[in-house]
Amino acid sequence: MSHPYKGFEPEWFDSEFSKNSYRSIFKWGEPRQIKAPRESLYTMLKALFGLSDKNFESYTEDLGLEDVSFDLPVSLTEAQLMAFREICGTEFVRTDDYARLSVAYGKTMYDLMRLRRKIAENVPDAVLYPESKEQIEKIVALCVKEKIPLYVYGGGSSVTRGVECVRGGVSLDMRLRFNKVISFNEIDQTITVEAGMSGPDLEKTLNNAVSLFGAKRAYTCGHFPQSFEYSAVGGWVVTRGAGQNSTYYGCISDIVLAQEYATPVGTIKSDTYPRKATGPDLDQIMMGSEGTFGVLTHVTLRIFRYMPETIKRFSFMFKDWETAQAAAREIMQSEAGYPSVFRLSDPEETSVMLHLYGVMETPLKHLFKLRGFEPNKMCLFLSFTNGEKGFSKNAAKHAKKVCRKFGGMSLTGYVTKSWEEGRFNDPYLRDTMQDFSIVTDTMECSVNWSNMSAVHAAVRAYCKSRPKTVCMTHMSHVYPQGANLYWIFITEMSDPEEYRAYHAGILDAIQKSGASMSHHHGIGKMFAPWLEGSVGENEYDVFRALKNHFDPDNLMNPGGTLGFDLPEDKKIRKDKKLYE
Ligand SMILES: Cc1cc2nc3c(=O)[nH]c(=O)nc-3n(C[C@H](O)[C@H](O)[C@H](O)COP(=O)(O)OP(=O)(O)OC[C@H]3O[C@@H](n4cnc5c(N)ncnc54)[C@H](O)[C@@H]3O)c2cc1C
């Protein structure tokens, strides 16, 4: 819970609920953990949305406390179910309503809204809990023989409708049993794991390498998406994810060294050489396939020395967005080492962050005014460096020098520390607010520096075309040639279809503004209509050829993923209006 409120405080829902309930599926993370807004943020949101305490006297959304129940028959035959039971073991093949719905949705607001309305659609006929690579290979072979659609559920944090089982069939829930270490190699500095291993399990294993493997030192995976605690290695890899420290450690596509897939045409395994010139890069071809070529079973990752003691934290306030961008570009282009966390917020996000992290309750508020930093113009930059002591110190020293050169005001490491403490907890706030119909969701894309201001303005203009909508933007994965732009929108909304139309408008604005459709969330089924229009027809033919090679019967994550089986009239081109 946050600081006590001085006035009225809504009854944020924090009671226990059934482990078979809808809430247990849509709620983020730990069942008993919640996050409520600070009073200053609550006050700010009420003012923005024109609401009063009265609107928060009772919940306006269904809390989803009933046990899951629906009427969708299982369409697999008893003989097919028996065959799966022979592979996985009887208790690891489930066909009950709860198990089926528990793997059908990810975590986009569209999913949460449907679950609150008890809309059960696109569920698998059966959920399988495999234990080994060999079992998965047998499952894939059986699905090919029997023409059964196959889906994979990693951590279920997809925000693109990636896990939805549009054609029924089976879903492989990787969390329960497919999460072991296969090998650890300190000389090459690698670890090989099963694809269902969660972020915390992987990091704990590496941090404890000395006691677990007799290693000389502790290691880190370097990959920390905000969904870290509730996502899995396989999901990171096939969606080409990016962690919050990617500017130093790289995105997952840089961290992966080798992969093994069970595909309809057999096993595909890449080797672990550090680099090679032996034709197209198989690893890069498979990453981003989102389960449409086959099931990722084993992953070998590059690992890094764990040195939390060398972290150097700093934060700065810039006068405006253009100056802040110029400073960010200079840090990344000056070849003095990259910071690890690199988060630069636009004016609207800065304003919300200052309330969220309680900065406006400190004397800094007065200092901003005194130094001429204006409320709806100033931009917050927070960062820290990683690496060997001297490297980390120098990279921080250089970044701070650049910030000062661009007129940045140092806020010390305080704001960065506050952000760090809440970095994995903020998603809890989403559920608390949604109980009162305040929805929060995100979108993101990749942009070159030369187009950054134009993309920011175009997408923001669309987001703000909805009245009473907070639209916060930041860059958080930064390169010498550009960065991602990440939008967080907060608005009052209840209807899933209204949400879908708004979300589609944002995707359309991203495509038309000349940015990539995704920097790290992948494409799934939700972004798929825009993919071909975004990459180009000849270019998309390469994707199609790969799909036809690996999965000619379209059994692997079918139903629109990456747009492979989408009818032409459902595809959105750059020159086409969204609703023609
Ligand atoms: C609150 C929140 C914060 C987030 N923050 C970030 C962030 O900072 N960075 C980031 O990159 N993403 C982020 N995401 C998005 C999401 O966490 C990522 O896309 C993540 O990589 C998905 O991993 P997962 O294990 O949850 O995959 P899932 O959601 O289970 O699956 C994603 C897709 O991959 C497929 N898949 C999963 N495992 C396999 C496998 N072994 N073989 C074949 N296909 C497979 C699924 O079928 C699905 O299509 C966030 C999401 C939420 C809800």
Characterization of this structure:
This protein is α+β, with helices and mostly antiparallel strands and 580 residues long. Among the domains are: 78-173, 2-Layer Sandwich (Uridine Diphospho-n-acetylenolpyruvylglucosamine Reductase, domain 2); 181-305, Uridine Diphospho-n-acetylenolpyruvylglucosamine Reductase, domain 3; 308-422, Alpha-Beta Plaits (2-Layer Sandwich), CATH 3.30.70.3450; 527-580, no CATH class. Strands 12, 13, 14, 15, 16, 17, 18 and 19 form an eight-stranded antiparallel sheet that branches. A five-stranded antiparallel sheet has the order 5-6-10-8-9. A four-stranded mixed sheet has the order 1-2-4-3. The longest helix has 18 residues, at 496-513. The model has no long low-confidence stretch (mean pLDDT 96). Residues 106-107, 151-159, 162-163, 174, 195, 225-227, 231-232, 234-236, 238-239, 241-242, 244, 290-291, 295-296, 427, 520-522, 524, 557 line the site of flavin-adenine dinucleotide. Residues 106-107, 151-159, 162-163, 174, 195, 225-227, 231-232, 234-236, 238-239, 241-242, 244, 290-291, 295-296, 427, 520-522, 524, 557 line the site of flavin-adenine dinucleotide (FAD).
In CATH, what is the class of the domain at 181-305? Alpha Beta
Global outline: globular
- What ligands are attached or bound here? flavin-adenine dinucleotide
Contiguous uncertain segments of 5+ residues: none
Number of E-state strands:
19
Helicity level: 25-40%
Second CATH tier, the architecture of the domain at 181-305? 2-Layer Sandwich
The protein's oligomeric status is single chain
Looking at the structure, the CATH topology of the domain at 181-305 is Uridine Diphospho-n-acetylenolpyruvylglucosamine Reductase, domain 3
Secondary structure class reads alpha+beta
What is the mean pLDDT?
96
Radius of gyration: 24 Å
> How many helical elements?
22
Distance between the termini: 47 Å
Main sheet properties: 8 strands, antiparallel
**What share of residues are in beta strands?**
15-25%
